[in-house]
């Protein structure tokens, strides 16, 4: 019954918000409303103001949105003099009052504005959308980048792992959630409801997503998992339409074959690490036969890097491509000595290691274009991820299996010879 | 089915936390673990560290807790020099990088530590408890008061109205929630499960609480409501054991007769205003016969103030007590010209007005001791609360009905005569 | 939490059934197992027997199923001599014991067998499927028809209106339910998930289904509703892909434009009457603007009847078709003086009346073939359905609006002239 | 969301029923309404009639109820002549039509009346209550006993194991369910909410109940379980207020120490067998450490039987009492050679065996009065219950452990000597 209560109140709150949106609008400019929202002491008129700001913002064109963002970035920025004087005061007399004054001065008013906007039931999703607009429109403008840091600071606190809820996504999930899974899949496109069903319904398939309680209809990130016998070396085989599903309790390996972020407005708020570990841990608890947790991942930067480095390659020669891919994963480095490959950075940073490399593993146009069809398994050895993570964080050395190392060694030689 | 998923994942997460708590403990001092938690770049070991800190903190004695708090307050405080130099840098060259450095310097490391502790599933409640300890132990120590401001800053963001869920509490609610309602009732004590049932089950009774999704078993604040015919003048009559409940659709008045905060660790995070307005609005939508929303409130500061001011009173003379109460509510002021009475401050700040005063209205020992048995109705006129709120915030003038004003006028005269 | 419990237990029970199905099978013939099931006093071995019978039946070919049905129909039939002697005994000495003996003798053993099969968690759906097989295979064999009467007798009791649950079906419903809606739609085919969504998601569309608690994944019957301004005369307009949805609170008319039974095994167990009235009543309570409840129904028997009666018609002449349709609906009678048209029988039997007839209203191939494109509105006047129902049940006179009557009058004349 | 829908519809349906109850009542006598209900062909007026009958019945005094029952028992009984003639017809020409006529004649009209009453949402509970009235008032009247057999026949079908839902009852269950657990506990009374909590909240306690989906607020039967180390010999120790709960995963034994039926109106509809086996099976799946499933049961007939048989006993001599109890359990027989003790009949009939007997095991007044403080463990060996059940059903021999047998042997000797 309390559950009913919950749901009813949620439904009510959504209606409330919608209803309020229809109310007569205040004639003042949006920036003035924003000032008033931060200035208002009490909550009463604040809530109505916040609703109006959110409603009005929704209807703005891009230029007007940009103008509003610039107002927040400048008129609602910190005042350096106020920071300095309150800091002096605090140093002279470190009391509750002086600390409070300093803290208030050191935080730009726009942070408080964003928090007050969030008091409106249902506003969290609108604020995530607002940041998506900012990222889309802001470009390299330094002031807008600073504004974005404030959004990001608040979102990192609100979308803290402790507040997220992990939900399985399956063929019994609501259609309005499933259509978002179709839309957001970023690695191996889902081309129909039948395709979706092949990834959700068989006994040897799983999907999990993180949700935030204030955005119950919006997945934040999701991972697709295949339960398998052994470590797979080809995504075509894994997703074949005519394959025979296996009983879940006969699987020994869980393959994370696709991870997709869903919300542009949550860029740089990292969920993937938590998601993979939580899912691996849940699956291990549910299915005692699972011994291996591994990805089947694209190598999105391979061809780009080969071109950039003037290395030669021939995608018709699978053995050569495998060796090149292994070499690339182990040795190609970018800024701060981090791996050049973004997917490698993600999994190595999580404490996984490079386990095996495969040629002809993704024969889609996209797969051939970005990696000559090669793919890689990153292995999550739950007993060693912490240690791997520390080692990688300290040394930036790519941890890999002996096989991959020797493969890379052969490749690097032949490339050198060719030059 | 997604709901099931949710609940399962919640259950899992609680077990997870409990299980982790039993893990072998790290031998390092707690303060060293806290430093490590803030220093760790990645999430992997951070989560294990956070779990250990929370688990260890739980087992500390008060002296050790105080020591830990002092460490946070000093070693994890801001570094004024770092603030100044990063601020100079930012003023010289306002870029994303310099703003980020300033923001990092201006926020004490302990805030980041608290956010990282909160990554552990189920940690939010533990952190609320940690602040309750701080408030209990911290006293007037300036540094600990500053630390508390950091907790409060984070909690205000996390317990933002937009994240809270309103739930009805009724006789079909889970027993483990109901026993907390019994424990937390702060105005008119609930002395048994039968007493509780009399406040929840009849058709003319309601109760509502705010919950946070990360603390689903802990009400944050709750309000008890009686549906009534007319505005009541006595809590004895309202709660009489042998009264006849009325059909809900015959009520014209909703009486908020008790509001209780539940979490010591959420002191100064205000929910009551939102709660009353949300409940009034929900009830108005559900029961079209309701025209009046009113409290039946204690006057906790009356006797204290009369003593302090050397006024004379006689609780056997109801008319005199009423007049004194009216005078007190309208004229007794404290700091910043705010009303002396804390309950008055709360309701007037919400935009309610003083509607009527009653003698012999609370004849319990507590009621006689604090207010000579008088009580007061604060009226929430939904069409005027915004306006009242603004007026009170600007002028601090107590808004009251004509009756109460003339009652207060008579009182103030007689008191003067007596002196 | 009790809800969780519920769901968990349901999940458990399904697994339980599946697991049991894998158990080693008893070697005895199915008919022997059936005898043993009815003979076994206690529940213990009964449950295992029942599981085995259900599992084995599933794997049978049609001939074997027919053989099993014939066994139930003959070997498990009543024994007339036993009925007579127990009846004599009861008449001689009407006691608890003699009544019990008579009741046992008068009910064929196969009824008890079906009840015992139903003890297996999840068996209800399997039994509905078993009856679907019986109806498909049984043909006109008198003994199998008698067996079917026993199934029907039990199902009428188990699928009693008081045990059914009404659920809205919408775009937030689970995908595995929605795909059944697509599959079971029997009036206006749903040709894709996009088409389904157009019938569920817009503010002016609703869908409701009856479920039985023991078959939570299987809708029994569902109705699709369009909220409209006025009474519609064309299903093309109603389902147009490019129409603009209207706000639900501006609708004055609820149009039941499709009702589909889902379970072949529940033939002759009537749900439609209850469903329409419950939905009309719920919608009236939710949307106070709704004043009219009406169908937009096919006239499936029109062309067939015109052919059979040697009437002439020309579907290019809409006015003539309308008149013919009106005449047909009012005057074409079949067995027991009931209307010839099955849809007319259903709605008139529910207490609706023939309100209006439209030409060019269903221009699909099916619509043109069965009714020359005509359709009809049956009107549910909630204040008169009881009275209409009684009148129709007693007199079999078709109740119709004045317009339809005069239309029918014109038609009948012209047809006569033509002959 | 479908869950919400469910719950909403349930809530709606309850309101619906209550609302209807307030409608203007039909002036005809109740018996005439009952006739009309059975006679009405269609559902429309039937539903209103059914609601009125249920509402009116509720307000009757006992004499009027009895009169109504007598009407059902006589006027709505079978007509032997109709049975005979339809049976003759069926034998002459076994067709669908003649079978239907016979089946209709052989079933008394009151069964159809009860089924039609059950169409009203929420009626199932009211019908269970109606039978409770019948059992309370009917006495030994043969016609009313026959009427009761009809109720029982229908209830056995409706409360079929396959329709029941097993729910855990715990400290998070709704209070209105828990207060029924307190009220219905029939073996070891629960004397307060604190006592209840001691039986539900500790990690080593469980409680489970069967519910019917149409009576979601009413447990049908529940069992209380203690997880223990070893087989206990005293209920005082098991329920001691100051005992230390053990971690659930350290328990090796599940003790069923109390089973209570909740609904007088479901007398003779057996649930206990299913409940114990389901719970044992669920617990075994959840807690792999559990090896033994055993009861700690009262011996309610011991003292009564000893008196009746003129045996001597002295409850101060525990060894003698144990031996007498063992002898009684193994040898005291009643009707049809079944054990004299009702609790023994229940567990032996389920396939359990008499495992051990204890003196001083229930020192409550009730325990001393009925069994001189002795108690017994019945052992459920899941691998042997089927076989035990069959053996007991065939031979009526009480299956017992060697210890209990030798104990019984010693007792029977000494008793003989004393006589």
Automatic annotation (TrEMBL), chains A, B, C, D:
Pfam name, any one: MCD_N
Malonyl-CoA decarboxylase C-terminal domain location: 162-314, 319-381
GO terms under biological process: fatty acid biosynthetic process
GO molecular function, a single term: malonyl-CoA decarboxylase activity
Residue stretches making up the Malonyl-CoA decarboxylase N-terminal domain: 78-159
Record's protein name: Malonyl-CoA decarboxylase (MCD)
Provenance organism: Falsiruegeria litorea R37
Higher taxonomy: Bacteria, Pseudomonadati, Pseudomonadota, Alphaproteobacteria, Rhodobacterales
């Amino acid at each position: 019954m309390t559950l009913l209560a919950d749901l009813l109140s949620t439904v009510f709150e959504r209606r409330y918000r919608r209803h309020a949106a229809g109310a007569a609008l205040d004639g003042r400019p949006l920036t003035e409303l924003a000032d008033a929202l931060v200035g208002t002491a009490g909550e009463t008129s604040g809530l109505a103001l916040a609703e109006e700001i959110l409603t009005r913002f929704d209807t703005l064109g891009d230029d007007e949105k940009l103008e509003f963002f610039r107002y927040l970035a400048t008129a609602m920025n910190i005042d350096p003099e106020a920071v300095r004087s309150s800091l002096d005061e605090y140093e002279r007399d470190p009391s509750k009052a002086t600390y409070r004054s300093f803290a208030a001065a050191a935080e730009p008013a726009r942070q408080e504005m964003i928090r007050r906007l969030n008091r409106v039931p249902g506003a969290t999703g609108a604020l995530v959308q607002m940041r998506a607009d900012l990222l889309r429109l802001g470009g390299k403008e330094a002031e807008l980048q600073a504004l974005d840091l404030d959004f990001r600071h608040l979102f990192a606190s609100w979308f803290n792992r402790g507040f997220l809820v992990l939900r399985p996504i399956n063929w019994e999930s609501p259609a309005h959630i499933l259509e978002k899974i179709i839309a957001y899949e970023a690695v191996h496109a889902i081309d129909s409801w039948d395709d979706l069903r092949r990834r959700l319904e068989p006994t040897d398939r799983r999907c999990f997503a993180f949700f935030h309680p204030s955005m119950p209809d919006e997945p934040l990130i999701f991972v697709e998992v295949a339960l398998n016998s052994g470590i797979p070396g080809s995504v075509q085989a894994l997703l074949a339409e005519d394959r025979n599903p296996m009983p879940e309790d006969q699987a020994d390996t869980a393959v994370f074959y696709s991870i997709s972020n869903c919300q542009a407005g949550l860029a740089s708020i990292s969920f993937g690490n938590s998601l993979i570990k939580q899912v691996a841990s849940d699956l291990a608890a549910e299915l005692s036969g699972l011994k291996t947790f591994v990805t089947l991942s694209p190598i999105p930067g391979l061809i780009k890097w080969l071109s950039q480095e003037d290395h030669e390659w021939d995608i018709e020669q699978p053995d050569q491509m495998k060796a090149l891919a292994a070499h690339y994963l182990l040795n190609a480095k970018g800024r701060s000595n981090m791996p050049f490959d973004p997917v490698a950075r993600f999994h190595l940073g999580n404490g996984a290691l490079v386990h095996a490399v495969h040629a002809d593993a993704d024969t889609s146009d996209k797969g051939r274009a970005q990696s000559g069809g090669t793919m890689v398994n990153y292995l999550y050895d739950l007993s060693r991820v912490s240690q791997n993570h520390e080692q990688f964080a300290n040394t930036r050395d790519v941890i890999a299996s002996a096989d991959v190392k020797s493969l890379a060694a052969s490749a690097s030689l032949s490339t050198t010879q060719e030059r």
